[in-house]
Amino acid sequence: xxxxxxxxxxxxxxxxxxxxxxxxxxxxxxxxxxxxxxxxxxxxxxxxxxxxxxxxxxxxxxxxxxxxxxxxxxxxxxxxxxxxxxxxxxxxxxxxxxxxxx
Length: 102
Prior knowledge:
By secondary structure, this protein is mainly alpha-helical. The chain has 4 helices and no strands. It has helices spanning 24-44, 49-52, 57-82, 84-96. Helix 3 crosses helix 4 (84-96). It is elongated, with a radius of gyration of 20 Å.
């Protein structure tokens, strides 16, 4: 845990395929109320690590695998839209390197 009221003291970098970041004003407009709400909730309802831990680890891992697969798909789609020639060339190169059985 980071400082009081923070989950982590390390600033997070959002996973995105945007070529330009969202304006700071728009981000602050959205994030500020969320941070205030989260802080108030943690002060009013204290919790510990055990309360945050998933109860069914296998279900949690499966959900995480699904989310990562969806993120990877979105990332590849974004790369294709951004620079189709480069993406298709890389894809073709990877396909040509595959060892296929005779």
